[in-house]
Amino acid sequence: MRLADGLGVGVAGASLMSGRNELGIEPGAEVRGLQRRLKVLMRWAEDNEERYRRFHAQELLLLSTTSLYELLLMVVHETRVKFRLDVITLAVIDPDHEIRHLLQHGGTDIDNLPQVVFVDRLGGLDALFAEPRAPRLGRMQPDHGALFPPALPQPASVALLPLVREGRIVGSLNLGSCDQERYRGTHSTDFLAHFGAVVAVCLENALNHERLRRVGLTDTLTGVSNRRYFDGRLAEELRRVQRERQALSCLFLDVDHFKRVNDTHGHGVGDYVLQDVARIIRAHLRNIDILARYGGEEFTALLPGTGREEALMVAERIRRAVRGHRFAYSGVDPLAITISVGISVLARVDRAVDPDEAGRELLERADQALYLAKEGGRDRVVAEDSSQAS
């Protein structure tokens, strides 16, 4: 044992004397190299821990919302900021335009969401994420251009995350950086794959919530909003008028002599007439306008940012379209259907005014204008404070 110890000391002593170990490396340099490696590993572990905290916090935030619009904003805006990215887009498969209709029904102008790319056909994404359904990392490629519209910053490197539900691609979350080295094919994708799975679940949950919400706020006969939905949106739009000082017009539309249709041809034909009238009105309104069946044969519409003259033109186009439509149904001679329209306008609402009270007043004035249109012979448009019919 002593010999061994002595040999050991002798070897060490010889190395120290020569200034090098058996590998020919100076002991101080070896220690410094190990220290550098340790620092790199510790920094890597700290970065991973911080990355995990950010992912976890964002996941909890996404899981907490049931609003489709709020979810989309969180995904494309807050995620970009938190992960310090140059651009994020979300591509969603929407062949029947259902998602777009749900957003528009909720008052969202989809043109204000350029980071959300609506895809009509699965083909491109399905080919991009061929089995296995895993994130794709690397340099920006020409075939990625559809996922990053030209109006947005164009990334140098991307991480494309497939959104998968029950084995089906429902979209992709696309992360972009101007740093060519930010995403490389050699990088681990565990965090990204997990985050993509969470976004897919949240998107499905929000869509289901919006579907249920729409069922409760939609008139089952005509497919337009019901009075409950309209009343809620009226208060929202009036608060917008207070904030932004924009005009708001209200149309009250009533099918002329509708009782005569029901009495002569039956309620079945009357239902068809209401459905066709609703479609005609809807076709002449913008996506941001709010149309509802207010009751019976009455419809009402809110036109945000619309003054009196423009509202008169919209109402007149609707009146002419209804009058010129051929209401023809099986077993019934073509019907001549007309509508009367009353218009009221709010140019501004003082911040001290109660929005609910202002809403009631707006509706009452539109109803009074409608009464004047009917008294004046029907099939006409009357705006408040105007004795001249269109």
Would you write up a description of this structure?
This protein has helices at residues 2-18, 27-63, 68-82, 98-105, 123-128, 190-216, 227-244, 258-265, 267-283, 308-324, 355-375; strands at 87-93, 116-119, 136-139, 157-165, 168-177, 248-255, 290-295, 298-304, 327-329, 332-335, 339-346, 381-383. It is of the alpha+beta class. The strands form three sheets. The protein has a five-stranded mixed β-sheet, with helices on one face. A five-stranded mixed β-sheet has the order 7-8-6-11-12, sandwiched between helices. A two-stranded antiparallel ribbon has the order 9-10. Helix 2 (27-63) runs antiparallel to helix 3, helix 7 crosses helix 11 (355-375) and helix 8 packs antiparallel against helix 9 (267-283). The termini are far apart. Residues 1-18 and 386-390 have low confidence and may be disordered.
Strand and helix map with partners:
Layout: H1 2-18, H2 27-63, H3 68-82, E1 87-93, H4 98-105, E2 116-119, H5 123-128, E3 136-139, E4 157-165, E5 168-177, H6 190-216, H7 227-244, E6 248-255, H8 258-265, H9 267-283, E7 290-295, E8 298-304, H10 308-324, E9 327-329, E10 332-335, E11 339-346, H11 355-375, E12 381-383
Parallel strand pairs: 1-2, 11-12
Antiparallel strand pairs: 1-5, 3-4, 4-5, 6-8, 6-11, 7-8, 9-10
The side-by-side strand order for the widest beta sheet comes to 2-1-5-4-3
Question: What global shape is seen?
Answer: elongated
- Oligomerization state: single chain
Order of helices and strands: HHHEHEHEEEHHEHHEEHEEEHE
| Total strands | 12
Q: What's the main sheet like? A: 5 strands, mixed
Estimate the mean pLDDT confidence: 84
Radius of gyration: 33 Å
Helical content (DSSP H or I, runs of 4+): 40-55%
How many alpha or pi helices? Answer: 11
Low-confidence stretches: 1-18, 386-390
Our estimate of the beta-strand percent is 15-25%
Whole-Å distance between the termini? Answer: 116 Å
Give me the secondary-structure category: alpha+beta
